[in-house]
């Protein structure tokens, strides 16, 4: 009887208390979050809401040209104050190489309060104003003063909100509704559609809660990337002609199509295919 009483007393300790709450068992006490959550070492980390993988700091730590190409196909996300998420696939970028690049704001290695973001760690936003009214968004890359300009997006989510933002922020606006392909087909249009302004300057794209980059979904085939001259830098001498603008060939959301560069890209791809075929024939 003594052993039975002991078992009954032990069972009562784990019964629900009088207030109706259930007392957790010793095993259940160990089923919470781990004591510490260290930073991930992967370039990807999962969003707590279950969104696709978000790109971390290591993704941005590459040269401007490499990063400009790597951006193509990734998803830029902007969360508005009311929780609305705007999404677009990056289809066009421009690389700026730093002090040696006569078209870069950091040419000659000059640093100012305006361009400080270009000299900060890779993944830092550099947002500047042009014509006194429009904004452009860049992302710093590896190398002091080097960055990538985001030029165009393929809108994927929140298009109506983008349309309303563009309508509210356009100068000399008319009553005509914007077509989908007109929402983000230019660096300033992109900023208008996503409500990006100077307040985003020097934010960390790898850790910000209002704007970030997610890994794009796998494509059925590798898209052809066109390397063309940058746009609107005619005063930069030979640098104005360097092929440092990259875009997805055939995308209707690109801001400026360069037919000559596309022909060169096609010719290069054809020549490469012929070389591969000849190599197989000689083996």
UniProtKB/TrEMBL annotation:
Residues 1-15 have a biased composition (Basic residues). Residues 1-33 are annotated as: Disordered. Its EC number is 3.2.2.21. GO terms for molecular function: alkylbase DNA N-glycosylase activity; DNA binding. Keywords: DNA damage, DNA repair, Hydrolase. GO terms for biological process: base-excision repair. It catalyses: Hydrolysis of alkylated DNA, releasing 3-methyladenine, 3-methylguanine, 7-methylguanine and 7-methyladenine. The keyword GTP-binding does not apply. Pfam families: Pur_DNA_glyco. PANTHER family: DNA-3-METHYLADENINE GLYCOSYLASE. Hydrolysis of the deoxyribose N-glycosidic bond to excise 3-methyladenine, and 7-methylguanine from the damaged DNA polymer formed by alkylation lesions. Binds MBD1. Binds SSBP1. Belongs to the DNA glycosylase MPG family. HAMAP family: 3MGH (MF_00527). This is DNA-3-methyladenine glycosylase. It comes from Muntiacus reevesi (Reeves' muntjac).
